[in-house]
Amino acid sequence: MEFDLSWIFLGLPLAFGLGWFASRFDLRQMREENRRAPKAYFKGLNYLLNEQQDQAIDAFIEAVQSDPDTTELHFALGNLFRRRGEYNRAVRVHEHLLSRGDLSRADRERAQHALALDFLKAGLLDRAEDALRRLEGSAFEGQARMALLAIYERSRDWPQASDIARRMHDAQQGDFSTRLAHYLCEQALALAAHGELPAAQALLEQALATAPQAPRARIELARLQQRQGQPEAAFDTLQALAQAAPAALPLAAPLLVETATATGQAPLAQALLQHHYEDMPSLDLLEAVVALEAANADTAAVGREWYVRHLEREPSLVAATKWLAGETLTHEQFHPQIQRALEQAAKPLTRYRCAACGFEARQHFWQCPGCQTWDSYPARRVEEL
Ligand SMILES: [Zn+2]
């Protein structure tokens, strides 16, 4: 007969369960009770040894019906099945536990939670949602709400996600104000995509009020104002962003240049950008400074000197590549090839990287598509990390 590793996985918790069961009886009692209850266990064990796992489960279910003390054995079996990816079996075990009338409240909640985990792992989100909702008011409420939040975020059901996050915020299970603001921003973007700009703006203002310290609502609001032909309002919003969340300014630097140029406030924007660049020599702020200098006839010739100044502070391949692009080389005929090679080498350095899971992307994400963490992308490029 071939040796199967799964025996060990099945056998260990079974041995624990049986050991625990046996320890509850002294020998004299055992002799008396042996005649009544545990036959089903040995039947189950026999099936297991013969690799008839379905029949073994049936035997254990029968054992549970005649002896309520086997709850732990059931939990062990259920968890075991889930870990092995046998979700149908795990669900069957936990549903059977739940159908029992004599289960204590604590065990009932535990079984309900285990059942929700079975559905989650199996990817049956509708059934997981239903099972998780039944855990409201139980000892597993906090965990269940977090799992529900993940389900609603994954299905982009922002109103339901907001409802759960607000309840957790009110119950002091954490500060969910930034997340609530993100949900409002997501809904605003969906409205804006359908051309409902005033409604989108109202939601962004609500997001701003919910989390005034968070940068996203101001950046999205400035974009929307610019789109509605209000560059002055957009410029003001970005000035407020520089005040409230300066670390996020690199994300809005190109928009700042655009709105400042449109409203004739380039000198003000230049001063603002240079001030923040001194504190934080960001590549995006550098690009914005160079772009504003290039747009001005008086400074167009010296704009690229900013790259050299940056290189004195940081050894940056990105800045070196950009400076070199405007240079005249002795062997000018080879410049395109050299430039292409450098740009290719510098490209991965201009990505954004999730601080939680390391996922890299060409664009900045407010929620990581890899690990679903919010605000895990710094507003800096890989080269600056
Ligand atoms: Zn991530």
From TrEMBL:
Entry membrane topology: Single-pass membrane protein
Domain LapB rubredoxin metal binding per the UniProt entry, residue ranges: 352-376
Keywords: Cell inner membrane, Cell membrane, Iron, Membrane, Metal-binding, Repeat, TPR repeat, Transmembrane, Transmembrane helix
Pfam families: TPR_19, TPR_7, Zn_ribbon_LapB
Main location: membrane
Positions contributing to Fe cation binding: 354, 357, 368, 371
GO molecular function, one term: iron ion binding
Compartments in which it is found: Cell inner membrane
Superkingdom, natural source: Bacteria
Name of the protein in question: Lipopolysaccharide assembly protein B
Species: Diaphorobacter nitroreducens
